[in-house]
Amino acid sequence: MSNPLRTPDDYELFLYTIRETYPSIRHSTLTFVRKGAFLGRVAGELWFDRQIRLVVRERVVYRRLPVMIDWYGYEVWQGEEKLYWYDSQPHPNDPTLQSTDPHHKHIPPDIKHHRIPAPNMQFTFPNLPVLINEIERGIIADHPASPPAAGEEPAGPNPDPSGHQPGIRPRRGHPRGPVPGPGRLCDPG
Questions:
Q1: What is the DSSP string of 67-78?
Q2: Cα-atom radius of gyration of the chain, to the nearest Å?
Q3: In sequence order, what E strands does the chain have?
Q4: What are the helix and strand counts (H, E) for the chain?
Q5: 0.85 surpassed by pTM
Q6: Tens digits of pLDDT across the chain (189 residues)
Q7: How far apart are CA 102 and CA 93, in angstroms?
Q8: Is 93 exposed, middle or buried (0-12, 13-18, 19+ CB in 10 A)?
């Protein structure tokens, strides 16, 4: 498939089979939810070795084909530390970001205000392959997997038999299950 954003069905298939394409992904909670005839939401996490996780939020529109990513936010975490994130919030008064407006990356130090252009992010082709390759090349390759040290949690989601995952608060008695915990992306609605 040349562009998984060709149709909503193609993108949904791409998302639900992403682990087959990228074996470095240890666990996926990605979901594609259609919100009417022309709008969809993608949300969830991709887990990698070394307690790396990619938190994904996308709003996609498909009034006309191909599908377009209308808004996104991607956060990369290692354990409880947010390493960096990408978003598509415009910053028209920041001349350093104009080359890729509105696409940019937040990096340390002062991660909230330190933004750099993100030339590989786009609305017309999936961003997940770029992000996964960045994680594979940058974070995982720099720190080869090793067995967890004494007292350290294993990589990936919590193997707790109750199904509880780190960063997810169970809803007490709620039929729809867990809700994102603190530090998760807010979707603009």
A1: PEEEEEEEEEEE
A2: 17
A3: 27-28, 31-34, 39-47, 52-61, 68-78, 81-87, 104-106, 115-117, 168-169, 179-180
A4: 4, 10
A5: no
A6: 589 999 999 999 999 999 999 999 999 999 999 999 999 999 999 999 999 999 999 999 999 999 999 999 999 999 999 999 999 999 999 999 999 999 999 999 999 999 999 999 999 999 999 999 999 998 766 655 444 444 444 444 443 333 433 333 333 333 333 433 334 344 443
A7: 11
A8: exposed
Record the tokens describing residue 130, joined without a space. Answer: 């770029």
Nearest one of 87, 85, 69 to 32, comparing CA atoms = 69
72 forms beta bridges with 58
Give the long-range contacts of residues 14-21, CB within 8 A, separation 24 or more. Answer: 14/126, 15/42, 15/128, 18/46, 18/128
Closest Cα partner for 187 from 53, 70, 27? 70
What is the CA 104 to chain-centroid distance, rounded?
14
How many residues would you count in the chain? Answer: 189
Q: How far apart are CA 157 and CA 12, in angstroms?
A: 22
Lookup result for tokens 């960096």 = 84
